[in-house]
Prior knowledge:
By secondary structure, this protein is of the alpha/beta class. It is 44% helix and 12% strand. A four-stranded mixed beta sheet has the order 1-2-6-5, with helices on one face. Strands 3-4 form a two-stranded antiparallel ribbon.
Amino acid sequence: MLRVLKRWLFGRGEPAAVSEAQWQRVEGGLPFLAYLPADARERLRALALAFLDQKTFHGAGGLVLTDDMLLAIALQACLPILNTGLAAYRDWVGVVVYPGDFVIPREEMDEDGVVHEYDDPVLGEAWPGGPVIVSWQPLEPADGLNVVIHEFAHKLDMCNGEADGFPPLGPDMTRAAWARIFAAAYDDFCERVDTGRPLPIDAYAAESPAEFFAVMSEAFFERPIQLRAAYPAAYAQLKRLYGLDPAAGANPSASGHSN
C-alpha cells in the first residue's frame, strides 16, 4: 500500500499535493494537532510527506493500510522531530502496523539461570536500528495515550544509544539539568504509583526511565496542560527538546482531566 501512496505523491519527481479536504479529514482525527501554531502545522505536513517517501510500511495481521492511515501515522511520527528533521530516523526504514494489540515472544532468564519463554501482548515496539511496530487504534479524543508518539519518542531516545530516557539534547540544554529534573519527576511518579495517589500520566511510565520519557512525550503532545501542571520543570525541558509549547495553544476548558 505504501508503494501505491508513494507513486501517487512522488511519481512525478516532486510531491503531488494532498488535497486540503484530505488533510483536514486526517487531522480531524488527531485533535491535539490543533495545539500547534499554523506555521508548525504546515511544516509538519511537509515533514510527514518526506517521511512517507523515505519509509516502507507493512500491514500485518491482514491489515490493509489506507492513505489516510499512512498520513495519520506519519503526522504523529514526525511530531518529535518537527524541529530537528528526519536525520533522527535515518538508520532504519520499516514501519509495521498491526490491527490492534499484538504478541511478541519473549525469553527471560531467572536468578537460577532458567530461561522462561512467554508471549508479551503489546501495543508497539521500537527496535534499535530496526523497524517501528505499532498497533492501529480507533481514533478517540486525546487522552494522553498515543502509541505512535510513544514508539517514535523511543526512536528519538535511541539516537545516542539504547533507549534510557536521555535523548540527544538541543544546544540550549544541559545534560545536568535534564538528568536532575527528569530523575526528580520519575522518582515522584514512582512514589505516586507505589502509594496509590492520582496519576497525571499512564502508570506504565513507572516501568523505567525510558518508558517515563516516552509516556511523558505522549502527554506533552496530547494533554499538555495537565502535564505542565503536574511536572512544570519536566514540561519546560520537553518544550526545549521539541521546540514546541502545546500548552500555549491548548484550550483549558476542552482538555479534560487525568485520572
